[in-house]
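Expect chain and fold; thus:
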Amino acid sequence: MKRKALLGKKIGMTRIYTDKAEIIPVTIVELGPCHVTQVKTEASDGYAAVQLGYEQVARLNKPQRGHLKHTPLLRYLREVRTDDAESYSVGQILDVSLFSPGDLVDVIGTSKGRGFAGAVKRHHFRGGPKTHGQSDRTRAVGSIGAGSTPGRVWKGMRGPGHMGNERVTVLNLEVVKVDPERNLIAIKGAVPGPEGGLVLVRNAVKA
């Protein structure tokens, strides 16, 4: 499948008014410009993909500088599978003009980290009863397994733990507006991560 993808930064949310006086909530993303830093083909690597680089920096370590000898020094590198990798070349610059209003895209980002959280906040558990002599189990997990058989807690049981800071993909979001001069794109709805967080925007795989 041919893939269009760009790296960018989430700027924040706002709203756009249409000609019909409708209000559309949108997320503004600064998308690109991205440099093609590596092209992988079936012949050389066993699969076809393009590696994209984003956000220029002044310093990198020696192995990274060697890898980016044909492009500027870039902070973020991400690989995107595509069937037309041979049509790209190292050093090529891709910008937000890849997308146009009305396109459906998938947005991949890292969700906000919430630290250690209980089961009520983390998994939306209902909690225990507020009556019948209960004093300290209101937000507790409750029973998580039988005693004799299996005599242990099954793997994957939901409970308290680290919440957020995970890779999240939101599918089939609509592109509302594109501003090539400022490398900005307005995407309908919310996208994962905090303001300033890195996101990858690609054409929708399940459109």
